[in-house]
Specification:
The complex is a heterodimer. Chain A has a seven-stranded mixed β-sheet. Chain A is α/β, with parallel strands linked by helices. Chain A is globular, with a radius of gyration of 25 Å. The longest helix of chain A is centred in the first third of the chain and has 19 residues. Helices cover 32% and strands 15% of the residues of chain A. Chain A folds into three domains: 261 residues, Rossmann fold (3-Layer(aba) Sandwich), CATH 3.40.50.740; 190 residues, Dimethylsulfoxide Reductase, domain 2; 148 residues, Beta Barrel (Barwin-like endoglucanases). Chain B is an alpha+beta fold. In chain B, 19% of the residues lie in helices and 19% in strands. Chain B is built from seven helices and twelve strands. In chain B, the strands form four sheets. In chain B, strands 2-1-5-3-4 form a five-stranded mixed β-sheet, with helices on both faces. In chain B, a hairpin with a 2-residue loop joins strand 11 and strand 12. Classes of the chains: A alpha/beta, B alpha+beta. Chains A and B meet through helix 6, helix 19 and strand 17 of A and strand 10, strand 11 and helix 7 of B.
């Protein structure tokens, strides 16, 4: 058996630019040469194929200031709205769902309110591992007397703190939410005064949820009717309640619908717009909230202002002396599709690693390789950077630059330079401006604060946040339109106003339907694979890989004791895991928190086990987020000698037969090769 | 029905501190009032993010009419009370506490211990060399933490930080009773065999350096730890979206320690393993 070396694997910092030479290798270059090559490729793509042949992948890890400049580069220098970031792979459905309901894409509450609420529902969120310090606020709440309900297919370390755990089947969130809504209505617990005054579409909603009786929901979700009823009554009768969710809700092909289904419950009970009552999507990256707020998304200008609003456009056009195209750009998912169709020719990828973070990573690599021109700006030579024509070494935003980031509770906080960057690495904004200059736009920002002040001048929600005030208050939550006032810690208090004019637009119920996962389990792929994070690791492991963690055990496929016994495998034993898209080899970990038919993996060690070669690129049509949370897999026991020799990265279904012995009783004869990529059909 | 009543605004309480009238919010301790009035009362087991266990008794003050000295860190201010911080009796008590602690454990990395010993004219050496219970090599059983029992004063702060006051992991407890009482990971387990999740929140509150980051321990052992050469810069963590504030302690362009501001609304001084230790990636410089 291959013994995994658990010492830190070190991605080394990039210290000088690289360009691809005539022989196809990346070689060291001067900054001038690299910037010339980068700019020239962008100019060529635009000249030959138009502005929409360019796409910007902005960075959810970088500062607000960098995201502001990156989207400005995209819109002003390149003339397109094709700018997006990896929020697409996580919380875009939360933003889409919340803004559809309330006109604003941020979480409605603050961490502190969780300490002073009566009921906390953690839905599809293992915050104990993925957001540990948020969970400390939850624990304070529990110690103060709040009840915690956990809704998750896995009995996670978060669920261990819950009064009740509702272990639903993967992808049945809407039936569960609808059954809760129906029960609240039928029990006479709906807040009709709130519904009448502040919402719209209640009748259609009541009709939509009517078929979801407790027993119907029990059959589909696997959650006992009494437990569903218990949550419904607890939520509806609590004075204050917090509904929190993470990627268990959003990383589905219908993630936005899932989010709407949860928001409906808040509208039904009036658990929004009050201190201690609200909706909290827990964001996965230090600045994924800020990236969107800064306009590094294809449909919004800075300050989350709608691109299609002529007044908004006019303001930015005069501020930037430019013309903004009055149509939404492509989101990350659509940009990847446009690579396939060759409509997208040049990509400027800043601080992202889509080659490993996208669902169906084999397909993502192929599409990136097909680009005419790929410029990657990063602190490491990631797998994505290895595909690039030009690699630009950047600074680590969080400790080598000044600026701000925005957290899950909409708090804009100062990021400060603490260490000097290595070698020739340059700040992101500096690099983008150098490229802009080569493409005819001379922008000079003396420092990050000057960028921020420009943003403040065009974004009313940020206007009151000067750097001085941000330091004084240890961060300020948006909206902050005034220089001498701090707004309440929760959003949408307007919904409770007596005066209809001040109450503003009604919050519509989302009329959404159950739609099971795209990748069905069947006899050949009988196990549902879901993915998530562990405590000591992070995303594709580029950052966390060099943390020497005593907790780390590498990538393992977690199975419940029953499935492990049925397969005849034990903890530590390597098995082959195959989906309709790829196969990997990984050791087993037996976790009694899982149930028969449910397996769990992470994407933290893609260089050892490329979990995303298994996942399906079935995308939410509204937000573009892929269904990372629900793949169908088969787990195969390996016979003695094969484990050591086999590459633990995916043999990408190039037609070769799997090597392992199948012990699954079902039809294992036709190899996975008969199933092309995403056979079950994508949302396109 | 609410189970969690929201707090009404707090009233102000007036009392006399060293002969002068002071006003503090209801619920404040005598120590809060002392600090607000600029009085320097020594503390060890008290931490600004924790409810203290009153274990060390170094902060005692005299409350008029009370039979015994009161720990300023825990005694709440009451209307009309008269408190004296600098009486002979209070000073003598602090002196003895410092003597008992300094004679039995190593206070060399306890901030201000030396200054207090001088101020209160404590003479720990009068108990003789046998008073010391120092004979243990620091425990280094993992890559992140070092536990140096020679420096432990049994203040319980780490127990509380790991327990229900913050982390709720309950890896740290007091094992043994009486003279045999000592802080332990569960029943004296090695850290990697315990429930420890390496958040470092125990180290953040340890007042004596009994718990330390291995990065600091190694630099000290090599004689290279130099706080004069360190800059502290507060920034935001690069991992999840919670937005924890990190204070990076940087020496010679290397991050040597990570803490968090104790008054920060996001963290209250607490971090997880990623925020606390996940910085190495930026320093993998060639």
């Amino acid at each position: 058996m291959k013994k995994k070396d658990r010492r830190p694997e070190a991605y080394r910092r990039l210290t000088h630019p690289l360009v691809r030479d005539g022989h196809g290798s990346l070689v060291r270059a001067s900054w001038d040469e690299a910037l010339d090559r980068a700019a020239e490729g962008f100019a060529r793509a635009r000249a030959e194929h138009g502005p929409d042949a360019f796409g910007m992948f902005s960075c959810s890890r970088a500062t607000n200031e960098m995201n502001y400049v990156a989207q400005k580069f995209t819109r002003v220098v390149m003339g397109t709205n094709n700018v997006d970031s990896c929020n697409r792979t996580c919380h875009a459905p939360s933003v889409a769902g919340l803004s559809a309901a309330f006109g604003s894409g941020g979480g409605t509450s603050s961490y502190e309110e969780v300490e002073h609420t009566d009921l906390i529902v953690m839905w599809g969120s293992n915050a104990r591992f993925a957001h540990p310090i948020f969970f400390q606020h939850v624990l304070k709440g529990i110690h103060n007397g709040a009840r915690l309900y956990a809704v998750d297919p896995r009995r996670t370390s978060t669920a261990e703190w819950a009064e009740h755990w509702l272990g639903l089947d993967v992808g049945t969130d809407i039936p569960l939410a609808h059954a809760i809504g129906r029960e609240i209505i039928h029990a006479g617990l709906a807040n009709h005064a709130f519904i009448r005054r502040a919402t719209s579409g209640f009748e259609a909603y009541a009709e939509e949820v009517e078929p979801w009786t407790l027993s119907a929901a029990e059959q589909v979700t696997g959650v006992p009717a009494a437990a569903i009823r218990g949550l419904a009554h607890a939520y509806a009768t609590a004075e204050r309640a917090q509904l929190c969710w993470t990627l268990g809700i959003t990383e589905h092909h219908n993630g936005t619908d899932n989010v709407r289904a949860l928001i409906n419950l808040a509208l039904l009970t009036g658990h929004v717009g009050r201190y201690g009552s609200g909706l909290q999507p827990l964001r996965g990256q230090n600045n994924v909230q800020g990236g969107g707020d800064m306009g590094a998304i294809p449909n919004r200008l800075p300050g989350f202002q709608d691109l299609l609003d002529p007044g908004v456009r006019e303001k930015f056009e005069s501020a930037w002396s430019t013309v903004i195209r009055p149509r939404y750009g492509r989101n990350l998912t659509e940009m990847f599709e446009a690579m396939e169709s060759r409509e997208l020719r040049a990509v400027y990828c800043i601080g992202e690693n889509p080659a490993q973070s996208e669902a169906d990573s084999g397909q993502a690599m192929r599409r990136l390789s097909a680009l005419d021109h790929l410029v990657v700006q990063d602190i490491f030579l990631t797998k994505t950077a290895e595909l690039a024509d030009v690699v630009l070494p950047a600074t680590a935003a969080w400790c080598e630059t000044d600026g701000t980031t925005t957290n899950s509770e909409r708090r804009v906080q100062r990021v400060r330079k603490a260490v000097e960057p290595p070698g020739e690495a340059r700040e992101d904004i500096d690099i983008i401006c150098a490229l802009a200059a080569r493409l005819g736009h001379d922008w000079t920002f003396a420092d990050a604060e000057q960028v921020w002040d420009e943003l403040r001048s065009v974004s009313p929600e940020h206007y009151g946040m000067t750097y001085d005030r941000l330091a004084e208050h240890q961060g300020i939550q948006w909206p902050c339109p005034s220089l001498d006032r701090i707004e309440p810690s929760y959003l949408h208090g307007r919904l409770w106003e007596a005066d209809p004019a001040r109450r503003g637009p009604r919050a519509p119920f989302g009329i959404v339907r159950h739609d099971p996962p795209v990748d069905p389990t069947d006899e050949e792929y009988p196990i549902r694979l879901t993915t998530g994070r562990r405590l000591d690791s992070y995303n594709t492991g580029v950052q966390s890989g060099s943390l020497a963690s005593p907790l780390r055990r590498g990538e393992m496929v977690e199975l419940c004791p029953e499935d492990a016994a049925r397969l005849g495998v034990v903890t530590g034993e390597e098995v082959r895991i195959a989906s309709r898209r790829g196969a990997v080899v990984a050791p087993v970990w037996v976790d009694p928190g899982l149930r028969p038919g449910l397996a769990f993996m992470t994407m933290h060690f893609p260089d050892e086990v490329d979990t995303n070669s298994l996942t399906i690129e079935a995308n939410c049509p509204i937000a573009g987020t892929a269904e990372f949370k629900a793949s169908a897999i088969r787990v195969e026991k390996l016979t003695g000698g094969t484990a050591a020799g086999e590459q633990p990265t995916g043999d990408k279904l190039t037609g070769e037969q799997p090597t392992g012995d199948r012990i699954q009783s079902a039809t294992a004869t036709t190899a996975a090769s008969t199933q092309p990529t995403a056979a079950a059909g994508r949302g396109e | 029905m609410t189970a969690v009543p929201l707090q009404p605004p707090r009233r102000l309480i007036e009392f006399t501190l060293d002969g002068e009238a002071v006003r503090v919010p209801e619920g404040a301790t005598i120590l809060d009032a002392c600090r607000a009035a600029g009085k320097d009362v020594p503390t060890l087991c008290q931490g600004d993010t924790l409810t203290p266990k009153n274990a060390c008794r170094v902060c005692v003050v005299e409350v008029e009419g009370a039979r015994t000295l009161a720990p300023a860190c825990s005694r709440r201010a009451e209307p009309g009370m008269a408190v004296r911080t600098d009486t002979e009796r209070a000073r003598h008590s602090r002196k003895v506490v410092l003597e008992l602690l300094a004679s039995s454990v190593d206070l060399s990395t306890t901030p201000r211990a030396e200054e207090w010993i001088k101020e209160y004219e404590a003479k720990p050496e009068r108990f003789g060399a046998e008073a010391a219970r120092m004979n243990e090599a620091p425990k280094v059983d993992n890559d992140r933490y070092v536990r140096d029992y020679d420096k432990c004063i049994l203040c319980y702060k780490c127990v509380d930080a790991c327990g229900e006051q913050w982390q709720n992991t309950f890896a740290i407890a007091v094992a043994g009773r009486g003279f045999d009482a000592r802080i332990a990971a569960e029943q004296d387990a090695a850290l990697p065999d315990s429930a420890c999740v390496y958040c470092g929140n125990c180290i953040e509150v340890c007042p004596t350096g009994a718990l330390s980051f291995k990065s600091e321990f190694d630099l000290r052992a090599a004689g290279e730890w130099d706080e004069e050469r360190q800059a502290e810069t507060t920034t935001v963590c690069a991992y999840c979206g919670v937005g924890c504030n990190l204070t990076l302690h940087v020496q010679d362009n290397e991050i040597v320690k990570v803490t968090s501001p104790h008054d920060n609304p996001v963290t209250h001084g607490n971090l997880c393993i990623k925020g606390r230790f996940g910085y190495q990636h930026v320093q993998n410089r060639d």
